Amino acid sequence: MLRKLPGDEVRTLVSTTPDTAVVFRPAVMQTPAVITILVMVGRFITGLIRTIVAHPIATTALVAPSVIWIRYGWPVAVAAVTVPCSMLVGWAVAGRESFARWVGWRLLAFWRRLWVYRRHWQPVMIITGLGRHIRGRDYLPRLVRVTCDGWADRITVKMLAGQAVKDWADRADHLAHGFGAPACRVAIARAGRLVLTFPRRDPLASPLSAVPIPETASVGPVEIGRCEDGTTYKLKVHGTHVLIAGATGSGKGSWLWSTIRGLLPAMRAGLVQIWALDPKRMELSFGRPLFGSHYAADPKECADLLDEAVKVMQERAGRFAGLQRSHVPTTADPFILVIVDEVAFLTAYQADKQLRQRITAALATLTTQGRTVGIGVMAALQDPRKEVMTIRNLFPDKIALRLDESEQVDMVLGDGARDRGALADHISPVPELGAGVGYVRLETSPDPVRVRAAYVSDADIRAMVAEFAGVGR
Ligand SMILES: Nc1ncnc2c1ncn2[C@@H]1O[C@H](COP(=O)(O)OP(=O)(O)OP(=O)(O)O)[C@@H](O)[C@H]1O
């Protein structure tokens, strides 16, 4: 411990003038070891007092049995430990959730603060460059608070003066590895303070089976799957447009089908119509009887269907003008969701230039003016480059499933999304692990949310068709 003392660096400081060989060495005063030891003991005692003041309950729980033993003998001390412990075990068995909320997660947070974060804080901060070691002194960001839940540790950090969120976001990978976590998300708590989220396990690592069809007719938000904190995820479709980008086999189909599944009762009630454009003929054709006449696969038919949607939009806009500013779905004016699978087939890979321009113009019109009159677009595509999808920025809500390159993440979700933890290029290509997993960035929140869509199997689609065929007349 005493091999290197604070101040030893000074010994190695050397300065020279640029044009002479003169070397200046500072005079070094040796501090007697006893003074150094006293300083260290003083620091240890201060740290101990600080810990006692910061954690009075934990300290009492540790110290009280020894005090009882000394004053009243060991049988009383053993009773004083076993009675509360068995009560806690009883509570943990009888009321798992309340025990976890009031005791379990707090104990885990206390332990992980000491054992993981405090222990590794100094080396991780220095090596990542977020802290500085200058002339024997450490200048480190302050670890303010650690909280745990069933999924992740959340750490509140006070940044060093002059640091920016980007400094931390750029080092999210380093922080994750430094503290032994699979990932790290950086979010702003308030000026000067950040919350770092370190997941401890991945609740999305195994596929989810299809969400039951809702009992009641609702236009959304539609339950799609689960977030990584274990809560159910509901996607808003009415009043927005959604772009889903992902490499081949990333599970775009499960997002499209989970949405359709959640809207079936509303379709039956006449409050929703789904208009399906399926240029690949591989995805939506499977549930064709659900869409009635609002299904197109041939590019020319797709363009006609889109033009029809534009006409409905313009007719509604004329009728609603001056009367209402937002759409309320009714059987007379249902919410129309235009679902386009592999939109690039129509906007980029379409050989007929005129048709391509017509389709792009119709999609641009719908995405800029459709949402207030009850027309939404949900489009899926594999390649998110601007040349392929010139109108990608017209979609307020975006979802990035597995992508091949890290640059594609910001192309889909917008600037800074990957820095904020949307590691869509790290999603596993193994379908059981990664298909259907994606990062959602909503227009209302800059922080991407990691979600897995439930898998709607062929058998589920067949059952949906058997029960709901004809709802899309
Ligand atoms: N949510 C999911 N959970 C688990 N597995 C899934 C999920 N979604 C899809 N899969 C699996 O991944 C495979 C590919 O899915 P899917 O065809 O939907 O991908 P895609 O992105 O539409 O691909 P492409 O663009 O090539 O059509 C499916 O056959 C299925 O086995």
TrEMBL record:
This is DNA segregation ATPase FtsK/SpoIIIE, S-DNA-T family. The keyword ATP-binding applies. Pfam families: FtsK_SpoIIIE (PF01580). Residues 228-410 form the FtsK domain. The chain crosses the membrane at residues 27-45, 52-70, 76-94. The lineage of its organism: Bacteria, Bacillati, Actinomycetota, Actinomycetes, Streptosporangiales. GO terms for molecular function: ATP binding; DNA binding. ATP binds at G246, A247, T248, G249, S250, G251, K252, G253. The keyword Kinase does not apply. Keywords: ATP-binding, Membrane, Nucleotide-binding, Transmembrane, Transmembrane helix.
